[in-house]
Amino acid sequence: ARSSTVELTDSVVDGSFVYNNYSSNQIQRSFGSGIHVTSNSVLRLEGSSVQNGAYNSGQSYYHASEAVFIEASSVELIDSAVTNNFASGSQASIRLEQLRSFTCDGFECSKGLDFNSLDSTFEGDLVFRRLEGRGYQSSYPIDVYDLSNDHAVRIIDSRLSGGYSGAISLPNPPNNLSISFEQVAFVNFSTAMFVNDYEPVFNGCSFINCSTALNIDFDTSDFPLVVNSIFCGPRETQIVGPWIDKGGNVFDADCTADCDGDGLPDDYEIQSGLDADCNGNGLPDSCESGGDCD
What we know:
The chain has helices at 235-238, 266-272; strands at residues 5-9, 12-14, 17-19, 29-38, 42-46, 49-51, 54-56, 64-71, 74-83, 94-99, 101-110, 113-118, 126-134, 142-145, 153-161, 168-169, 179-187, 191-195, 201-203, 206-208, 212-216, 225-227, 230-231, 239-240, 244-245. It is mainly beta and 294 residues long.
């Protein structure tokens, strides 16, 4: 689509397959699930999914392929998903280049969101709300290139998991980059975050099944600020390097108790305010019959 509005509402793009066999002297870019939006267009996904797509180039040399590719356009991702798409080149589900505007409120993505620069017309912050982001092998759940000081990154009420490289990649961040995580669960990482040359804020976050939560460069003067967060391991292994403790942080939390089976420890849900514990017995009220103390 070029200079168009592409809108999928309560829809499914399922099982599409793209095959290309270009000569070996050509550089090939194809799009595994068939959504390619460029040149001042708008893509809106609401209540929709792009899933189970496949791509095969017929070539062994480098190429890139994504389930969804957006260039120089605006994107709205509302209560939608891009999952289980296989691409034989790039591992990202969605690649966004020269993005002009972005809305994310309720989005599930496997194999990563790849942002390669924001357009000069982009205004405001890069905000993710209710994101379920999963990495794959060496890919990150979120990968952001070429940010400027004009744009902060905020991740709110989200869950980032999988991939051994970390939750977010920020190569060559600008000086004084503002990045914050609010009510974010980091799940199943070897190291959830490598911190270097920027000062992230973690407020009300949980680090579940992470060998190391935060690994901070000892040579940096930029230290992460952590408040009201839960770590499922001891202080000495969960945070490596200098950091700023703003209080309310809990180490060695019981991350095995999960009475509602939503993947978030009971301790975290109570401390973060996602659930109440009005009788103080350590069990979220939603898991108790007649759990309303009123």
